[in-house]
């Protein structure tokens, strides 16, 4: 359809597909009427993959297979070129990503017919401080898109797409700081927006600064898990004789969405069995062994994520994990969460200061801070932004959909 333009926001936690015509942009329903699709794939041991909420349901119901989440993280690591075992077969991570994208494109084509052009979102940096790895990550995404039939593939930075979304509601020209806190990255742009600016064919001069860091919601989950949950499974537990503590790497894998599946092998099971003999409190290692033997790692991560989200509205939340670990259901308080994530919060604050300097602006020049992304609703982040820009208005829109609709608007500008 020549008058439809498409953008795909492939997120660490959730993905969207958006369309634009000559008058508006909107998100397509992807699963049970929902416009977001969790970026999850469940590959059955002897069957086809399922996606999104259906993938999570298959895992929770105990279907034999592998759940994979935070797939976007593999783009910026060596995992993209590796293979993973699923039942009796081996599948490359690139094949998993391609299957997920094929599912998105199939849903889009069923509603619009095939399209020849696409704009894909990307973080400002897939990888901090490594331009070569960053280029490889984008090239991998482009290769996947072209393999699915798109003749014209373009990219736009996710915070710039969010700015295009915000601009649809702007009544006057202003300088806007976009703060996009996603699942895997935090991206920031300072953009001049306005009704007249929106008509320009080239918006390059309106982008005053652009930067990003590899910090996002999955990092908050990981740090919360390490601080409040995994000590109940032996993390940092002392070994006999006062010679040290339990090896950390098993727990770091368990706390990292895209590395959980690496624990599910006989070598790790044997290692934990041997380490149990060295632990001062072997019952803690029993809990870790129960999680690994039962392949409960993703369910554990979901419980941590649920507690983190609950802390947005409540001063305390309970992690419901006793059925998975055989241990307690730890209570985490908001101040404990904020202490656990202090280091990435400081990086976000430093990046906001740096992007203002990059643009040559003082904080009072910013009229609005537009916050988007699934983690942008955390109270501690709102407090941080308000402290950094006390005179700016803080606005929010569709936290999970603003990037997608902005990408569709960019597709209309670029291909229309």
Query: For the CA atoms, what is the radius of gyration?
Result: 22 Å
Shape: globular
- Distance from first to last alpha carbon: 12 Å
Q: How many structural units, i.e. domains?
A: 2
Helix content: 25-40%
Major sheet: 6 strands, mixed
Mean pLDDT: 92
Task: Please explain how this structure is put together.
With 416 residues, the chain is α+β, with helices and mostly antiparallel strands. It folds into two domains: 186 residues, Nucleotidyltransferase, domain 5; 123 residues, no CATH class. It is built from 14 helices and 18 strands. Strands 1, 2, 3, 4, 10 and 11 form a six-stranded mixed β-sheet that branches. A hairpin with a 4-residue loop joins strand 2 and strand 3. Helix 4 packs across helix 14, helix 5 packs across helix 9 and helix 12 packs parallel to helix 13. The longest helix has 20 residues. The protein is globular and about 70 Å long. The mean pLDDT is 92.
Summarize the structure.
This protein has 416 residues and is of the alpha+beta class. 40% of the residues lie in helices and 21% in strands. It contains 14 helices and 18 strands.
Question: Tags for this entry?
Answer:
18 strands; alpha+beta; six-stranded mixed sheet; five-stranded mixed sheet; 2 domains; 14 helices
What does the secondary structure layout of this molecule look like, with pairings?
Blueprint: E1 5-10, E2 14-20, E3 25-27, E4 37-38, E5 40-44, E6 49-51, H1 52-60, E7 65-69, E8 83-86, E9 89-92, H2 93-112, E10 117-122, H3 131-147, E11 152-157, H4 158-167, E12 174-181, E13 186-193, E14 207-213, H5 217-229, H6 249-255, H7 266-276, H8 282-293, H9 297-310, E15 316-318, H10 322-325, E16 331-333, H11 334-340, H12 342-359, E17 368-372, H13 379-388, E18 393-396, H14 402-415
Parallel strand pairs: 1-10, 10-11, 12-17, 17-18
Antiparallel strand pairs: 1-2, 2-3, 2-4, 5-6, 5-7, 8-9, 12-13, 13-14, 15-16
Helix pairs in contact: 4-14, 5-9, 7-8, 12-13
């Amino acid at each position: 359809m020549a008058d439809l333009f498409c953008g795909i926001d492939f997120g660490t936690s959730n993905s969207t597909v958006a369309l634009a015509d000559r008058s508006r942009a909107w998100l397509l329903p992807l699963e049970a009427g929902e416009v977001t699709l969790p970026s999850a794939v469940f590959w059955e041991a002897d069957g086809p993959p399922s996606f999104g909420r259906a993938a999570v349901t298959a895992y929770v119901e105990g279907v034999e297979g592998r759940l994979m989440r935070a797939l976007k993280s593999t783009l910026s690591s060596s995992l993209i070129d590796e293979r993973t075992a699923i039942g009796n077969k081996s599948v490359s991570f690139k094949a998993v990503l391609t299957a997920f994208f094929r599912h998105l494109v199939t849903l889009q084509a069923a509603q619009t017919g095939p399209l020849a052009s696409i704009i894909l979102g990307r973080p400002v940096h897939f990888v901090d401080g490594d331009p070569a790895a960053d280029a490889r990550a984008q090239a991998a995404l482009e290769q996947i898109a072209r393999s699915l039939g798109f003749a014209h593939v373009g990219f736009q930075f996710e915070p710039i797409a969010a700015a295009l979304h915000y601009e649809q509601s702007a009544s006057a020209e202003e300088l806007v700081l976009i703060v996009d806190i996603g699942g895997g990255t935090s991206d920031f742009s300072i953009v001049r927006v306005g009704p007249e600016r929106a008509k320009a064919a080239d918006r390059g001069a309106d982008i005053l600064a652009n930067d990003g860091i590899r910090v996002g919601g999955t990092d908050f989950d990981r740090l919360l898990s390490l601080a409040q949950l995994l000590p109940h499974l032996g993390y940092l537990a002392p070994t006999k004789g006062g010679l040290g503590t339990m090896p950390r790497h098993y727990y770091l894998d368990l706390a990292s969405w895209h590395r959980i599946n690496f624990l599910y092998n006989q070598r790790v099971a044997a290692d934990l069995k041997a380490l149990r003999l060295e632990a001062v409190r072997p019952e803690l290692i029993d809990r870790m062994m129960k999680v690994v033997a039962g392949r409960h790692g993703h369910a554990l991560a979901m419980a941590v994520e649920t507690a983190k989200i609950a802390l947005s509205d409540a001063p305390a939340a309970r992690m419901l994990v006793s059925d998975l670990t055989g241990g307690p259901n730890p209570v985490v308080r908001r101040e404990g969460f904020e202490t656990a994530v202090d280091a990435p919060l400081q990086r976000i604050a430093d990046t906001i200061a740096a992007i203002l300097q990059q643009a040559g602006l003082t904080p009072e020049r910013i009229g609005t801070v537009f916050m988007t992304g699934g983690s942008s609703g955390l109270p501690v982040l709102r407090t941080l932004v308000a402290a950094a820009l006390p005179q700016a208005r803080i606005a929010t829109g569709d936290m999970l959909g603003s990037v997608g609709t902005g990408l569709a608007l960019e597709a209309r500008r670029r291909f229309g």
